Amino acid sequence: MQITIDGKKINVKNGITILEAAEKAGIKIPTLCYHPDLKPEGRCGICIVEANGKIMTSCNNKVSNGMIIQTNTENIKKQRKINAQLIGCNFEKEEEFRKWLALEELPDIDELKFKSKPSELIDESCHDIVMDFTKCIMCGRCVQKCRDLQTVNAICYSKRANGTIVGKSLGKKLIETTCVGCGQCSLVCPTGAIKEKEYIEDIKKLLKDKKYHIIAQTAPSIRVAIGEEFGMPAGSLVTGKMVSALRKVGFDKIFDTNFGADLTIMEEASELIDRIKNKKLLPQITSCCPGWVNFIETFYPEMLPHLSSCKSPHQMFGAILKTYYAKKVGINPKNIILVSIMPCTAKKYESCREEMIIDGVKDVDYVITTREAAKLIKSFNIDLSKEEDSEFDNPMGKGSGGGAIFGTSGGVMESAIRTAYYFLTGYDYPKIEFRSIRGDKGIRETSIKIGDTKLNLAIVHTLSNARKVIETIKKNPNKYHFIEIMACPGGCIGGGGQPKPTTRDIIKKRSEAIYKEDKNLKIRQAHKNPQIMELYKTFLDKPLSEKSRKYLHTNYHDRSKCSR
Ligand code: SF4
Ligand code: SF4
Ligand code: FES
Predict the structure, then answer these.
(1) Calpha distance 409→525 (Å, rounded)
(2) Which tens digit of pLDDT belongs to each residue from 57-88?
(3) C-alpha angle with apex 235: 231 to 236, nearest 5 degrees?
């Protein structure tokens, strides 16, 4: 086969690595952990190159026909330097480390930027994830998720040889690392060394306290996943059973976050139209995934003006519950406790943000994951799979099909387009389903014509793909008008708080169940939800009104230099 390496065309044998091919072409790539007699593991990142536009280690990646490789671009040199600095973080003395680098003919580091300290084995510093490395068996699954899937690198291998351990980057407290709380590490950890911070006991205590009116809201992706915790097949749609089980647990009311999702669409579609009509900054990027919001605040703060100002559906729901609903039923909002049952660990931190407190009242009091909700239900000896169906409570218990599909990658975009189309033209798009938006590819691109306007759209899941799309926008700001980004594979159905295991196959089945729910609903567009229409008529007035902005919108912060 033929490849091009630093502009030179050479013929190479199938199956050799990029490093071996470079050697054949007489090009030296620096290496560190690589040894010709050992299986290359790609640990140190010194041998990185750019192959077909992607950065990868050359010692353990093979060539493919027609591959174009660059071994020494400015970007590669910069990245190699950072990797060398990271390797040196255990060295006490900078001079000693630099001498050693020179001896090994490795790139100099300018300065030793990072300092490691012994990592604490038990870390409870975050609102969302807890780590107890005394239970770690070093399988490395979490590192792969954090490094490769999410490109966050908050956890990594540290120390070398026999002393290698998995720990937090540079031995920092988790809250001081770049961790975005996505929980993908907890989803694959086989021993429970990494898991979500649990709030089940606090909720059980509150359920006994008659002073409080305790409400549960359930996200769109819970009803297609929680059945698995009770032995049901993946993709079982258990909405009615879930509501009954939660009622038995003792919640005063069970409401539907799909209502909040519809509300998000009313605001987000209006924001998109406002940006287009008034020539404001585009592309607009969705903001309902808190893992993604943490990521952009940490890694790309300069791109924050692109984020929609909409709060996520469960936060919008909370703000309306503690105002509109509280007034309707005559209860002091301070005596209402809202528990959000979510597929997500990052929502735990989101609910604690200062921006999510209005007039001294928190939108959401507790967030528990699907796994925690199942544990809570089981602790009352309730078998959800045997429950009869029952209905959500009102007046915040109805969601449209547009709200239902929020749980899967592409759902927010499809729902927003269903409503934006109506807002712009005054009539519905002839086909309610936008098939070109659906699928499981990590980055999907499509376009749609609304009247005279052609909208270029992108749908993205996982943070490694988000990073690629953000880099694309930085180079080509006019490429897209609207982008949906979700941190977890498949969107919320693959969220870090979902039942274990969550595999590609299982995610597919959960997604099918979500689309089935949408198909079965009579009302499939957010703007046709009668409870939402009533809310605007009697409380909010209209999307983007003063009240809507106060309760349903927020702002974001540069967190590149500070922790969460
Ligand atoms: S929660 Fe996400 S970002 Fe944080 S350590 Fe785990 S995988 Fe990495
Ligand atoms: S997934 Fe769990 S057991 Fe495996 S390396 Fe990570 S913390 Fe250790
Ligand atoms: S030499 Fe260490 S990753 Fe290739």
Answers:
(1) 17
(2) 999 999 999 999 999 999 998 888 888 877 77
(3) 60
Residue from 120, 124, 198, 355 carrying the catalytic annotation:
355
Ligand 3 near 59 CB (within 6 A): yes
0.90 exceeded by pTM = no
Whether 144 is in the pocket of ligand 2, judged by its Cβ within 6 Å, is: no
The response to whether residue 184 sits with its C-beta less than 6 Å from ligand 1 reads yes
Q: Is the pLDDT of residue 154 over 80?
A: yes
Q: What is the pLDDT of residue 111?
A: 67
Query: Which residue, among 471, 397, 482, 467, has the nearest Cα to 437 in the 3D structure?
Result: 482
User: Is residue 268 annotated as a catalytic residue, yes or no?
Assistant: yes
Q: Are strands 2-5 and 68-70 parallel, antiparallel or unpaired?
A: parallel
Question: CB of 43 closer than 6 A to ligand 3?
Answer: yes
- pLDDT tens digits for 348-401? 999 999 999 999 999 999 999 999 999 999 999 999 999 999 999 999 999 999
**Chain CA centroid to CA 121, Å:** 26
196 is annotated as an active-site residue: no
Is 308 catalytic? The answer is: yes
How confident is the model at residue 292, as a pLDDT?
98
- Residue 238, helix vs strand vs coil: coil
CA angle 31, 36, 37 (to 5 degrees): 140
For residue 60, report the distance from its CA to the centre of ligand 2, in Å. Answer: 23
Question: Is the distance from the beta carbon of residue 525 to the nearest atom of ligand 1 less than 6 Å?
Answer: no
* Preceding peptide of 290 cis, ω within 30°: no
Strands (E), 435-478: 443-450, 453-461
pLDDT digits (tens, 9 = 90+) for 330-346: 999 999 999 999 999 99
Active-site residue among 492, 511, 517, 528? 492
To test the pocket of ligand 1, the residue of 126, 132, 150 to mutate (highest count of ligand atoms within 8 Å of its CB) is: 150
Question: Which residue pairs from 73-80 have beta carbons closer than 8 angstroms and sit at least 24 positions apart in sequence?
Answer: 75/50, 76/48, 76/49, 76/50, 77/107, 79/45, 79/48, 79/55, 80/30, 80/45, 80/46, 80/48, 80/107
Which atom of ligand 1 approaches the CA of 186 most closely? Answer: 6
136 lines ligand 2 (CB under 6 A): yes
CB atoms within 10 A of CB 290: 27
Strands 366-369 and 336-342: parallel
State the closest ligand 2 atom to the C-alpha of 141, by its place in the atom list counted from 1.
1
Flag the least confident range among 90-99, 252-261, 485-494, 529-538. Answer: 90-99
